[in-house]
């Protein structure tokens, strides 16, 4: 897939992040640029401390860069630390997050965990229930709708978290080591879900991962080292199985 042929979902241009100052200054990311097309699923690799989370949280509008621009769809949202939108509401409407652990709310059922994301955006209980059930069905966990998270396996919890991240039809999905707590096969299933979501719903997806076994699922891989981001060739062409 080339980013030229499809509209851009995410454009990060020359992102630099400096933590601290003077003796304690850390340049966690330097001139990091990435374009993700709608429908493209990107793996972000790199050793511990290389700047992956710094990049992901910048693109996710959680941790603004010191300099550089972030454009989501056709909207320039961040120019350095200067916001051109209300970041909180922009994030809620356009960006879905998935973390290493599913972070489901323990006292809500699976379906309620998905509904809450829509209700926070003003949707009615009834409409949000309908969509939540559709999403759980799409992700193959509709039969678990009434269960509390503690009754679900790690893989099922991650599927609910993916459903929750899709609730508001985000144009961008960002996942930080979403399969770290899963075994190889379940991890792969979750990665395949990201590819399905990207391809079928047209979202731009970035997944930080250490799991090299599932790289063939991704359209593109990037590697971060010492805060420098490099695009590596598409894995489907590079990885021989
Ligand atoms: N809030 C902070 N203040 C100071 N330095 C920070 C802060 N957050 C991260 N760093 C530093 O920035 C660098 C990049 O960290 P980051 O968490 O982005 O790496 P990472 O690739 O996500 O690592 P991991 O794979 O271990 O999660 C590291 O040197 C880290 O110590």
Description:
There is one protein chain. With 241 residues, the chain is an alpha/beta fold. It has a domain at 8-102 and 173-238: Rossmann fold. Helix content is 31%, strand content 28%. The chain contains 7 helices and 11 strands. The protein has helices at 52-59, 87-94, 110-119, 125-138, 154-166, 184-201, 235-238, and strands at 8-19, 26-37, 41-45, 67-72, 75-79, 82-83, 95-98, 172-176, 204-208, 220-225, 228-232. The longest helix is centred in the last third of the chain and has 18 residues, at 184-201. It is globular, with a radius of gyration of 18 Å. Residues 235-241 have low confidence and may be disordered. The site of adenosine-5'-triphosphate has 12 residues, from strand 2 and helix 1. Adenosine-5'-triphosphate is lined by residues 19-20, 26, 28, 46, 48-54.
Brief characterization of the structure:
31% of the residues lie in helices and 28% in strands.
